[in-house]
Design goal:
The complex is a heterodimer of chains A (238) and B (260).
Chain A lengths: L1 E12 L2 E12 L3 E5 L6 H8 L7 E6 L2 E2 L4 H6 L1 E4 L11 H11 L4 H14 L15 H13 L5 E5 L7 H16 L3 E6 L10 E6 L2 E7 H5 L4 H12 L1
Parallel strand pairs in A: 3-8, 3-9, 6-7, 7-8
Antiparallel strand pairs in A: 1-2, 1-4, 4-5, 9-10
Chain B lengths: L1 H20 L1 H22 L17 H31 L1 H6 L5 H29 L8 H26 L6 H14 L7 H7 L1 H9 L1 H13 L5 H21 L9
Helix pairs in contact in B: 1-5, 2-3, 2-5, 3-5, 3-6, 3-7, 3-10, 5-6, 6-10, 6-11, 8-9, 10-11
Classes of the chains: A alpha/beta (238), B mainly alpha (260).
Protein name (chain A): Putative ABC transporter ATP-binding protein YbhF
GO molecular function, one term (chain A): ATP hydrolysis activity
InterPro entries (chain A): AAA+_ATPase (IPR003593), ABC_transporter-like_ATP-bd (IPR003439), ABC_transporter_ATP-binding (IPR050763), ABC_transprt_ATP-bd_su_PQQ (IPR022467), P-loop_NTPase (IPR027417)
Chain lengths: 238, 260
C-alpha cells in the first residue's frame, strides 16, 4: 500500500520559485516529518498536497490516487489539520464536526457514531456542546484533529499543528500523531521545531524550495543532536 | 449522490446558522429598503409622475413602483454580503475546509450560492410582509409567482458576489466594491425610476441602464409580482447568471489560484 508520493514538484509565484523538483515518498503507516525553516516552502507544499494550488509540473499521489487525475478520490482519503484554525468559532464542537462529516457524505447515525468515536479518541467528548470560541488553543487543536479523523483517512497531513500551544499540549498532540502512525495511518507532519522529531521518524528537510535531506531522523542527525545538524545544514546554505 | 445532498444540506444549514447568529444583519437588511420605501418614496412621489406602463394597468403610487427595485436591492446587498463572508472565510481559513472536500469545486460554489439565495428570499418576503402592513400590496397571486423570479435574481446577484470574492483578496478592499458595484448597479437601473423617464434626461444613461443586469432582475421581479412574465428580462438575467457563474468558477480554479 502506498501512502504519499511526491515527484519532481515545482511551483512558482511569478518569478519566485517556492518549490523546485521536490521528490519524496512516505510508505503507508509511516510518520514523516517535513522539517524546514520559515519560508522553506512547507506551506506551498501543503497547499499543493491539498489541491488548494495546482502545479503543472510534478505529480502527487495520495493512498495510490493521483491528485491531478482523481482529485476527489485522493481528497476523500486525506485528513488535514491546517496551520491556521479552520473551525467556525460561532458553532459548537459537535456542529463543526457534523458540518465536516456532511462535506464527506456522512450523515445521520453513521456520522454521529464516527464523531463520538473521534471525540472519544481525543478526550473531547464532554466538550462537544461547547462553542469552539470558548475553547483554549490546545482543545481547539484537538477538535481539529478529531475532525480530520472522522472519515477515517489513510493519509493525515498536519501543517505546524503545535504552533501557539503550551509544552504539555504540544507533547500530547505530537505523541498522539505518532500513535496514529503506529495504528497504520500515513502521517506527514510539517514543523520547524526539531524537538517534535523522534529518532525513528522519516525526515525530509526542506530548505530554500528544495529537499536538503531525506532519510531516517537518527541517520540524518548522525553523531550530533538533530537541532545542531538542522542548523548546520540550513545555516550553511543560508 | 448522497455525498452531493448531504453536502448541499450542510452548506445551506451553515449559512442559515450563521445568519441566525447575526440578527443585526437581518434587521439592517430590512431597515435599509424600508427607509427607502417609507421615507424616500413618500417624499419623492410628488416629484415623479408615472404614466401607465406594463405590467401596471392603472395608475400606481410611487411606493408600489419601487417595491420590486427594493426587493432587488435586498438581493444585491445580500449577494455582496455573502461575497464579503466568502472573503472573510478565506482570510479565516474556513474556506480551505470547503475547497479540500472531495466534491467538485463547482458544486461547492453552487451550494454556497443556493444558501445565500435562500436567505435573501426570506428577507424579501419579510420586506414584502412589512410593506403590506403599510398598505403597499400586490395581487395575492403575485406573492407566489414572484418566487421563481426571486430565485433567478438571487442566484444571479449571488453569482456576481461569488465572482467578486474571487478577485477581492482582502476584506479592507471591500468598501471599493460598495462604491463601484452596489451603488452604480442600483442607481443605473429601473429600480427607482422607469427607463423611459431616464431617456428623457439622457439617452446615454438610458442605454447604460438597459445594459445593466440589475435592471432586468428588477423588471423580472416587477412583472412576476403582477403574475406576468417578462421573457426578455428573464433571458438577460439568466445570461448574466451564466456569465457571472462561469467567471466565478474560473476565478476559483486552483490551477489559476495564486496565494497571497
Amino acid at each position: 500500500m502506498s501512502g504519499l508520493l511526491v515527484e519532481d514538484l515545482t511551483y512558482s509565484y511569478g518569478p519566485k520559485t517556492a518549490l523546485k523538483d521536490v521528490s519524496f515518498s512516505v510508505a503507508a503507516g509511516r510518520f514523516c516529518v517535513l522539517l524546514g525553516p520559515n519560508g522553506a516552502g512547507k506551506s506551498t507544499l501543503f497547499s499543493l498536497l491539498t489541491r488548494l494550488l495546482v502545479s503543472s509540473k510534478g505529480r502527487i499521489s495520495i493512498a495510490g490516487y493521483d491528485l491531478q487525475c482523481q482529485p476527489r478520490a485522493a481528497l476523500a482519503r486525506l485528513g488535514i489539520v491546517f496551520q491556521q484554525t479552520t473551525l467556525d468559532l460561532d458553532l459548537t464542537v459537535a456542529q463543526n464536526l457534523r458540518y465536516f462529516a456532511a462535506l464527506h457524505g456522512l450523515s445521520g447515525k453513521d456520522a454521529r457514531m464516527r464523531i463520538d468515536a473521534a471525540l472519544d479518541q481525543l478526550s473531547m467528548r464532554e466538550r462537544d456542546g461547547e462553542k469552539t470560541r470558548s475553547l483554549n488553543g490546545g482543545h481547539r487543536r484537538r477538535a481539529e484533529l478529531a475532525r480530520a479523523l472522522i472519515h477515517d483517512p489513510e493519509v493525515l497531513l498536519l501543517d505546524e499543528p503545535t504552533v501557539g500551544l503550551d509544552a504539555a499540549a504540544r507533547r500530547s498532540i505530537t505523541e498522539y500523531a505518532h500513535h496514529l502512525a503506529d495504528e497504520g495511518k500515513t502521517v506527514l507532519w510539517a514543523t520547524h521545531l526539531t524537538d517534535e522529531v523522534y529518532d525513528k521518524d522519516r525526515l525530509v528537510i526542506l530548505h530554500q524550495a528544495q529537499v536538503l535531506a531525506d532519510g531516517f531522523a537518527a541517520e540524518i542527525a548522525g553523531d550530533m543532536p538533530l537541532a545542531d545538524r538542522f542548523l548546520s545544514l540550513t545555516g550553511a546554505e543560508a | 449522490m448522497r455525498l452531493y445532498w448531504t453536502s448541499l444540506w450542510a452548506i445551506i444549514t451553515r449559512e442559515a446558522l450563521r445568519f441566525i447568529h447575526q440578527r443585526e444583519r437581518f434587521v439592517a437588511a430590512l431597515v435599509r429598503p424600508l427607509i427607502w420605501l417609507l421615507v424616500f418614496a413618500a417624499g419623492f412621489r410628488a416629484a415623479l409622475g408615472l404614466s401607465i406602463s406594463p405590467p401596471y394597468q392603472t395608475y400606481i403610487t410611487y411606493e408600489t413602483y419601487i417595491v420590486p427595485g427594493l426587493c432587488g436591492m435586498i438581493m444585491l446587498f445580500n449577494g455582496m454580503q455573502s461575497s464579503l463572508s466568502l472573503v472573510y472565510d478565506r482570510e479565516m481559513g474556513s474556506m480551505k475546509l470547503l475547497l479540500t472536500a472531495p466534491l467538485p469545486r463547482g458544486w461547492v460554489l453552487f451550494c454556497k450560492l443556493l444558501g445565500s439565495t435562500a436567505i435573501s428570499i426570506l428577507q424579501v418576503y419579510a420586506f414584502l410582509g412589512i410593506a403590506a402592513l403599510f398598505d403597499i400590496t400586490h395581487p395575492a397571486i403575485g406573492y407566489v409567482t414572484v418566487l421563481p423570479a426571486l430565485i433567478v435574481c438571487g442566484l444571479m446577484l449571488g453569482a456576481l458576489g461569488l465572482l467578486l470574492s474571487s478577485f477581492v483578496k482582502r476584506l479592507e478592499n471591500f468598501s471599493g466594491v460598495m462604491n463601484f458595484v452596489i451603488f452604480p448597479m442600483f442607481f443605473l437601473s429601473s429600480a427607482l425610476y422607469p427607463l423611459w423617464k431616464m431617456a428623457e434626461s439622457s439617452e446615454l444613461l438610458h442605454d447604460i441602464c438597459a445594459l445593466n443586469p440589475f435592471t432586468h432582475a428588477v423588471e423580472l421581479i416587477r412583472f412576476a409580482l403582477h403574475a406576468q412574465m417578462n421573457w426578455s428580462a428573464l433571458g438577460w438575467s439568466a445570461l448574466a447568471l451564466a456569465v457571472f457563474m462561469g467567471a466565478a468558477l474560473l476565478g476559483y480554479d486552483p490551477a489559476r489560484a495564486r496565494q497571497r
